[in-house]
Automatic annotation (TrEMBL):
<dbReference type="GO" id="GO:0009055">
    <property type="term" value="F:electron transfer activity"/>
</dbReference>
<dbReference type="GO" id="GO:0020037">
    <property type="term" value="F:heme binding"/>
</dbReference>
<feature type="compositionally biased region" description="Basic and acidic residues">
    <location>
        <begin position="157"/>
        <end position="175"/>
    </location>
</feature>
<dbReference type="GO" id="GO:0046872">
    <property type="term" value="F:metal ion binding"/>
</dbReference>
<protein>
    <submittedName>
        <fullName>C-type cytochrome, methanol metabolism-related</fullName>
    </submittedName>
</protein>
<dbReference type="Pfam" id="PF13442">
    <property type="entry name" value="Cytochrome_CBB3"/>
</dbReference>
<keyword id="KW-0408">Iron</keyword>
<keyword id="KW-0349">Heme</keyword>
<dbReference type="InterPro" id="IPR022411">
    <property type="entry name" value="C-typ_cyt_methanol_metab-rel"/>
</dbReference>
<feature type="domain" description="Cytochrome c">
    <location>
        <begin position="61"/>
        <end position="146"/>
    </location>
</feature>
<keyword id="KW-0732">Signal</keyword>
<feature type="signal peptide">
    <location>
        <begin position="1"/>
        <end position="25"/>
    </location>
</feature>
<dbReference type="InterPro" id="IPR009056">
    <property type="entry name" value="Cyt_c-like_dom"/>
</dbReference>
<feature type="region of interest" description="Disordered">
    <location>
        <begin position="152"/>
        <end position="175"/>
    </location>
</feature>
<dbReference type="InterPro" id="IPR036909">
    <property type="entry name" value="Cyt_c-like_dom_sf"/>
</dbReference>
<keyword id="KW-0479">Metal-binding</keyword>
Length: 175
């Protein structure tokens, strides 16, 4: 079974459990607030992955990792810091109303929009380990950008990489 199919099934099950459609109400700093911590991986009140930024500006490991992954694989089309480009939308805006399950589905399966004589294609990344092993990281980074808690540029301070992140990476990357 391909990774793309697994992620698609996961995304659909998340949509069903959450009882939401492809978009959610406007995300906000309050809704994105971290209420649980599982070895440095944070979740909001709904159990959706989120970020944690300390008062001194230190970001959690997953947000920092998301920044790195975004700048490795996504910025060419979606612009620096997710601000968009002539090729692809501003993900820092899209995630204001896009739920987690929809994000996973689009990244894994891709998307094609045709209209007004223009065709936009988001390629599927469900088979790219450099993306799918870090989809939560990408999501929390872009969520922090979307609600305005993370300014543009490389975060100045980051938390240490938790053991859970090391274990997941080794497992997902096949190491």
């Amino acid at each position: 079974m391909s990774v793309r199919i697994v992620f698609s099934a996961l995304a659909l099950s998340l949509l069903a459990v959450a009882g939401t459609g492809p978009a959610q109400a406007q995300d906000s700093k309050e809704k994105a607030a971290a209420v649980s911590d599982d070895d440095g991986k944070y979740a909001d009140a709904d159990g959706t992955p989120t970020y944690k930024i300390q008062d001194d500006g230190t970001v959690d490991w997953y947000t920092f990792s998301g920044y790195r992954r975004f700048n490795s694989d996504c910025h060419v089309c979606h612009g620096p810091d997710g601000v968009g480009s002539s090729y692809a939308p501003a993900l820092a805006d899209s995630l204001k109303t896009m739920d987690y399950g929809t994000f996973l589905s689009i990244v894994a399966e891709g998307r094609k929009n045709v209209g007004g004589g223009k065709e936009n294609v988001m390629p599927a990344f469900g088979d790219n380990k450099n993306v799918y092993c870090y989809m939560d990281d990408l999501y929390v980074y872009l969520r922090a950008r979307a609600v305005g808690d993370l300014p543009r540029g490389r975060p100045a301070k980051k938390a240490d990489k938790p053991q859970a992140a090391k274990d997941h990476e080794a497992s997902c990357m096949g190491g």
